[in-house]
Amino acid sequence: MLAAFSHGEARMVGMLEGRTAIVTGGAGGIGSRIARRYCEEGASVVIASRGKEKLEAAAAELTAEGYRCIAIPTDVTRPDAVTAMVSGTVEAFGGLDILVNNAGGAMFIAPPEKLAPDQWNAAIALNLTSVFLCSQAASNVMIEQGRGRIINVSSVAGMRMSPAFVHYGAAKAGVINLTKGLASSWGPHNINVNCIAPGLTATEGVADWLPPRTKDDGSPVPPLQFPPDPEHVADLAAFLAGDASARISGELFPIRALYELA
């Protein structure tokens, strides 16, 4: 790897040097870890979410460390806001090479017979429709460029029964199928589309109530028996954005602990 310079300090050229990425849901949790990893690999990064204050604080933290990162507050369920996000990215950094559709959430717990139509519609809009809207807007830039990477963040809830989250599971299953359809449609334009399906992940809010990482005898819990850290998801997202995955498209990559395989 070659030496480069940023703010007067030497650093190594990363595998995403010269590329531009959007990470939705980038203000915290998995999204913020992916954004940081992309910055560390040399990318210019746009983080997007609805919460302006938290979003701008996250971007300011990365900028203060010498990385190229800006915040674009965006409601990814609104087509006009998504269009503005993509055009703002191109205006700021000159193009768009990587899109990570990470925004989403279970939103609430409810048995299917109690789900109101507006609850169902809101869950589908946030977790599935947003992925289509952002991908469609990004494709207009990527097709013209003749290259691009789209990485959709689904969930293991889209792969198995989720009785308390049927709205979330259905949307995330849709993301998996949408990934395959977009990969087929846009493959001729050199656009790779893949999907990560995390299970329970040790994000800020979750880590507080997870069991210890060490056993009673002081020995460490084997890595595959403990929920992955957000950094593990970021590692996979970096691989799928880089040159090493150039021949991979339309694939699903679950990342979870062994006990979740049952």
Please supply descriptive tags for the structure shown above.
single chain; 262 residues; alpha/beta; seven-stranded parallel β-sheet; 7 helices; 9 strands; 40% helix; globular; disordered N terminus
Outline of this structure?
With 262 residues, the chain is of the alpha/beta class. It contains seven helices and nine strands; from the N terminus they run E-E-E-H-E-H-E-H-E-H-E-H-E-H-H-E.
Rg computed from alpha carbons, rounded to a whole number of angstroms: 18 Å
CATH domain class name: Alpha Beta
Strand line-up across the major sheet:
5-4-3-6-7-8-9
Q: Based on CA inertia axes, which overall geometry fits?
A: globular
Please name the CATH architecture.
3-Layer(aba) Sandwich
Low-confidence stretches: 1-8
Topology as H/E string? EEEHEHEHEHEHEHHE
Largest sheet: 7 strands, parallel
On the 0-100 scale, what is the average pLDDT? 90
Helix content: 40-55%
| Total domain modules | 1
The CATH topology comes to Rossmann fold
What's the β-strand tally?
A: 9
Question: What structural class do the secondary elements suggest?
Answer: alpha/beta
If helices are DSSP runs of H or I spanning 4 or more residues, what is the number of helices? Answer: 7
CATH superfamily: NAD(P)-binding Rossmann-like Domain
Give the N-to-C terminal Cα separation.
Answer: 42 Å
> Percent of residues in beta strands?
15-25%
